[in-house]
Amino acid sequence: MSGSGTGVVRYEVHDGVAWLTIDRPEARNALSRDVREGLWAGTRRFVDDESAAVLVLTGAGEKAFCAGGDLKEMAEDALTVPPPDFLPQFGRNIDVPKPTIAAVNGVAYAGGFLLAQQCDLVVAAEHARFAVTEVKVGRGSPWAAPLSWLVPPRVAMEILLTGDPVDAHRAREVGLVNDVVPAAQLRQRAQELASRIAGNAPLSVAAAKRTAYLSASCPREDAYDRAEEIWAPVYASADAQEGPAAFREKRAPVWKGI
Prior knowledge:
By secondary structure, this protein is α/β, with parallel strands linked by helices. It is built from 11 helices and 11 strands.
């Protein structure tokens, strides 16, 4: 295990899985300036960290994953339109080729919803709640543009227009969440999911992630062409020969990522 952090955001690696934890539970893990800087630093570290194959993003405590922006700070700064680098948005303002998982341990509101939305997978505690609350405080949510790709359009419309919370089971029902578990099992379940991914061929995992997002940005016929381009170097890799060889020899594959 290795780890470090900025005080309000911790970065730790456990068996090839990086844990990025917002550690400001007394403020419901709200996105203060220090938290945002810590998230940027942690995300960049994960991208460059060869010892970490998967990132799990979570919050400290039992009440909040992240309750969104620090409204007191925003009021003091008279924040209007947040700058493009206000918060790391995986796949939008920072490329994160490796898989990411949100382990949602409580409320994920506004900016917290954003953070969970931008992760590739979501595991939620039974008491977790999700909401895009901006309409209730006169703020904006342009970052929610992908929501109607993740969930049915009418569900996205309800979430955005009402600002009302969606509980964890409903979130799983509509496809926003992959798994719902008792709070005491959240960390273990997220680690297990991340470990299963980390055990797969890294080039294939990276290509699979890119392929999954093609339908969000390309017409179907273009998506096929782009997918062929993405997977060509995977087929030509040493790992593509290692997998069948390991199966034939009845042993665990040894991935090299080349």
